[in-house]
Amino acid sequence: MSSIIQLLPDHVANQIAAGEVVQRPASVVKELLENAIDAGASDIKLICKEAGKTLVQVIDNGKGMSVTDARLCFERHATSKIRKAEDLFDLHTKGFRGEALASIAAIAHVELKTRQDQEELGTHIIIEGSKFMAQEPSVLPKGTSFSVKNLFFNIPARRNFLKSDVVELRHIIDEFQRVALAHSNIHFTLYHNGSELFNLPQSNLRQRIVNIFSGKTNEKLVPIQESTEILSIQGFVGKPEFAKKNRGEQFFFVNDRFIKSSYLHHAVMSAYEGLLRDGLQPSYFLYLTVPTHTIDINIHPTKTEIKFDDEHALYAILRSATKHSLGQFNVAPILDFERDFNLDTPYSYQNKEAETPTIQIDSNFNPFQEEKKTATGSSFGFKPKKEAQPQWESLYVGLKENFEPEEMHFESEAVTSSLFSDHEVEKAPTSTYQIHKKYIVSPIKSGMLIIDQQRAHQRILYEQFLTNITVHQASSQQLLFPLTLYFSGNEMAILKELKPSLESTGFIFEALNLDSVVISGVPVAITESEVPIVLEQLISDLQDEIPDSSFSQMDSMAKSMARSLAVKTGTYLTEKEQENMVNSLFACKENSVSPFNKPTFITLSVEDLDKKFSI
Ligand code: ADP
Ligand code: MG
């Protein structure tokens, strides 16, 4: 029989290897950033276009490459970082496998420009799908620039598999932050589609964390420091009262490399025992340093999982160090009993100049005009100052025009159609009652309807926002003075992605800066004071869940805004408001459940009542 085994050509082998190293644009980001760090750079710029799908470029001021190395670096297993197997147990660099560039060059259009400090001319190389297209000497700045364009251009299946730009950008930001957190002594910048998302100057660790996660983070952190023979720990853990629902701010670094470890996570969590409310997650930024020969990094191609020689000892040390820090923090306020924390100047105000208070004058004020009732306005979240329109009505701006009783159909809900036979719903219920500031009760022909006011309102607002976002027709109200809100770079990146959708709900942005937004108009359903709450909630909801399509992003946004703005249980509703709530609910496309899939109303039939009384 003839033999059938053949050696794969290099470019095919590289494409296969690429599958392991490069899953998405963020993988390229990670490899290029790590190479720049290994090259000793003190300034690293990351430039992406369309979430890295069309361009990922990393420019560093590191040591550069010679002509020969510039060519060799694209070969598989070509590395300057290890020479023999033993070196694997004494690693001081991020890379060592020598396969990243070969893999990337196999599945993208790559352009390399590099110059060593002592050389006059640098090297410019173009390589596409593992094929060298051009190489020439060139006048270049010191350091290296890699541009990776059109990722997966020759593997359409992989390219189609990529998620939306929002999702891919989120992954890129995650990688960028991990690398930036591990190297606060390096200046990092990230640009996306021409705008600067992060600019992180060289700083100490605490400042780096604050620069990434906003100024508010500073007061939330407790330092941690421990040094033993097998492990030293540095960094910060979050105060328990600032714990959050998501695990977004939990980082372990081992010898300056970001790693994931559920075992070490457990150690930290056990130190928080009894200090956290159920389901909440503390933040932590923990930097462990261990002797290089006690770890094995080589067990995972992306190197985010590593093996420790003595995990149990690390667990115990980490747990007790965390406990110790938290303990110190818990004791501190007791020693400081003389101090009234309410009098402390917030950190960010310390260097702020005093502002002259502004006076608002209502030029339309007429003392003889009868005053409108605004009793429930504030707790309700609708602008009482919009006198022309009774406040309740803002509840269904945008819905009202569509609300034509004779057009209502309930085919989606079999229950509903049988409930309201005889066109009961077509005329609004004439009398409603609110019980326990929670339910609206309304008699109907077949019995009675009990509506959960909060869930019903969530449904109404959700459909309203979703219509606005998808149809782009919301009206906004101009603010007298533009509102400036501060956010972290991370949060700003999400806001920038959401900008078009937010604009369709009625937001008007005057500027989106590096760490702040200036808002000059808001949706009619939102009061100015609610804007920060709505946006913060929105960002945190979207951080939790990574939407996989632009529709699910809009959907999450409408849900989040509906949740923030719906009247809460415990809010008193006037009779008119109750009645409007009922009408608006039944004008909704899907009225039986809230956007979070909880029932909005139940019915009790006369027979149900009869049964109860027959005992
Ligand atoms: P590894 O990082 O595992 O060695 P790579 O494929 O990522 O493998 O890189 C191959 C080699 O190219 C590196 O060992 C290094 O010598 C060189 N190199 C890559 N990027 C840079 C850079 N930004 N500056 C200088 N040299 C670089
Ligand atoms: Mg590398």
TrEMBL record:
SUPFAM superfamilies: ATPase domain of HSP90 chaperone/DNA topoisomerase II/histidine kinase, DNA mismatch repair protein MutL, Ribosomal protein S5 domain 2-like
Domain of life, source organism: Bacteria
GO cellular component, one term: mismatch repair complex
GO molecular-function terms, A-Z: ATP binding; ATP hydrolysis activity; ATP-dependent DNA damage sensor activity; endonuclease activity; mismatched DNA binding
Annotated DNA mismatch repair protein S5 domain residues: 209-327
InterPro entries, sorted: DNA_mismatch_repair_CS (IPR014762), DNA_mismatch_repair_MutL (IPR020667), DNA_mismatch_S5_2-like (IPR013507), HATPase_C_sf (IPR036890), MutL/Mlh/PMS (IPR002099), MutL/Mlh/Pms-like (IPR038973), MutL_C (IPR014790), MutL_C_dimsub (IPR042120)
Keywords: DNA damage, DNA repair, Endonuclease, Hydrolase, Nuclease
Transmembrane segments: none
Keyword Repressor: no
PANTHER family: DNA MISMATCH REPAIR PROTEIN MLH, PMS, MUTL, DNA MISMATCH REPAIR PROTEIN MLH1
Protein's recorded name: DNA mismatch repair protein MutL
